[in-house]
Task: inverse folding
């Protein structure tokens, strides 16, 4: 059971920290709405059009997509009725401009972030996870060749779709994404810490253990 009123949460950490995996657990356990900007942007690429083509270039290079494009989609998504009881933002904000926009749009609605969950994760873990990640082409479920394999190699357990490697999960792009994270996103750790919003967890833990840690933390802090 969630506390009364909207429960808005940010999942912060480098790519490969396990934010998406934990978001799926949290969505299931607490009914929180998972908003992943990466997923939204990948959908925009699939949909095509001028925006899709522009977004594709940035994503394949591991660069940040321009703020105006990302922010517009996030704000629109958060304005939908199913977001009124709270959202779990995965991959947003990714720089201080986005963090400022998020604060403003929440406060316009009389809302405030309940907490920011920071996944502190060693770089070697992140590289190992991203380079072994496989994704279902059809339903988007994530796997890992050794940490979280599908029952049948190359086939999604859920929908039978084909498992593929994301174009940005190659070693050169992974390294660039980590640099982009250090240059743009890592500053948000101190930004939210100063606001008293930061809760740190160990992103290096296996997924099940990490969920138990998060669940215990939420209960201890009276968030759920
Ligand atoms: P992710 O799935 O979170 O690893 O995101 C994949 C890619 O989508 C990133 O490398 C960026 O190119 C883009 N992206 C996702 N979220 C954002 C954001 N908040 N701002 C800018 N670009 C983003």
Result:
């Amino acid at each position: 059971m969630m506390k009364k009123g909207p429960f808005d949460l940010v999942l912060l950490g480098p790519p490969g920290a396990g934010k998406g995996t934990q978001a799926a657990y949290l969505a299931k356990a607490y009914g929180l709405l998972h908003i992943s900007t990466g997923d939204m942007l990948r959908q925009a690429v699939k949909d095509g059009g001028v925006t899709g083509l522009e977004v594709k270039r940035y994503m394949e290079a591991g660069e940040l997509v321009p703020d105006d494009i990302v922010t517009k989609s996030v704000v629109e998504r958060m304005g939908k009725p199913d977001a009124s009881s709270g959202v779990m933002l995965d991959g947003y904000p990714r720089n201080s401009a986005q963090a400022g926009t998020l604060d403003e749009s929440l406060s316009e609605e009389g809302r405030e972030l309940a907490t920011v969950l920071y996944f502190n994760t060693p770089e070697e873990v992140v590289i190992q996870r991203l380079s072994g990640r496989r994704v279902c082409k059809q339903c988007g479920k994530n796997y890992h060749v050794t940490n979280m394999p599908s029952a049948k190699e190359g086939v999604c357990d859920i929908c039978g779709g084909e498992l593929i490697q994301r174009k940005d999960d190659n070693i050169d792009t992974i390294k660039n994404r980590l640099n982009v994270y250090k240059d743009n996103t890592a500053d948000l750790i101190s930004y939210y810490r100063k606001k008293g919003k930061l809760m740190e967890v160990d992103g290096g833990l296996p997924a099940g253990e990490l969920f138990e840690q998060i669940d215990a933390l939420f209960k201890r802090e009276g968030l759920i």
